[in-house]
Structure formats: C-alpha cells, structure tokens
Design brief:
Blueprint: H1 20-23, H2 40-43, E1 46-55, E2 61-74, E3 77-86, E4 91-100, E5 105-110, E6 113-122, E7 125-133
Antiparallel strand pairs: 1-2, 2-3, 3-4, 4-5, 5-6, 6-7
C-alpha cells in the first residue's frame, strides 16, 4: 500500500499509482462526473514530490521510496525529471516523456522502462503507470 505526501507522482515509479481505485474492484469509469477533474498533464507540470512503498510482482512490500520531480510541457509532451531515493539509500534518476493519447489515456517512456507505460484517468481517479522496469538482478 502506498502513502502519498504533498503531491503524487505516479507515473512514474512502479509504485506510483492510485492503485486503491483498482484494488477495491473499482474502475476509472466509476468516477465519471466527479469533481475536480484530475489533469495529469497540468498536475505534473512544475515540482512534485511523493513517497510510497515499492511492491514485488506479488504485491508484497519491498522497500520505501521517495521522489522529487520537475515537469515541463513542450508541445503535447510532458517531460518529467524524477529523482528517486530508496529505503536502502540507493538513488536513481528517471527521465519521462508523457503523451496524452485521448481524453482518458496516457502513454509514457522513460530511460529505465521497457517499452511503453500506460495510464488512465477519469474525473478524480488516476490509475497510474503500468510498466516494467530495467532492474539489475540481485543474487
């Protein structure tokens, strides 16, 4: 489960998402018509920070993570520079390019993401990035 302080960064780190919307069997369409409408392209422009917990593929907590992020729009692309600090003291930098596909769908690419990350939004709900990260094998 993820705790979020100040502003949420999602797209972004594998744990950054409001997975709570999905974990209770809810869908983004359940939030249709809610206010205020969440616009990720606007929200992530500028500075944001977040904290949460990285989870294994089975959903077990692995370690804490905090992020400091700076986003800027250039045309229809949002460029995000994300600095992550993990509970074990390791640091990582991730550079995102996010693009709105339609009113509710987004895709993004980052330096350590395999392929394309996808996200959905509906009114006040944002189901964050689904993606695979390039991570070194441990052990």
């Amino acid at each position: 489960m993820q705790m979020i302080h100040r502003r949420l960064l999602v797209l972004l780190c594998a744990a950054v998402s409001l997975a709570g919307c999905a974990s209770a069997g809810m869908k983004p369409s359940d939030f249709k018509g809610g206010r205020p409408v969440f616009d990720p392209m606007e929200f992530f422009s500028g500075r944001t920070s977040s904290s949460g917990v990285m989870e294994s593929r089975r959903g077990a907590p692995v370690q804490r993570v905090t992020t400091e992020t700076s986003g800027r729009r250039q045309g229809d692309v949002l460029h995000i520079a994300q600095d992550l600090q993990f509970g074990d003291g390791k640091r990582r930098h991730r550079s995102w390019q996010i693009r709105r596909i339609d009113a509710h769908h987004y895709e993004g690419r980052a330096n350590d993401v395999i392929g394309v990350a996808t996200a959905r939004s509906m009114a006040t709900c944002f189901i964050g990035a689904t993606h695979w990260l390039c991570r070194p094998v441990i052990g």
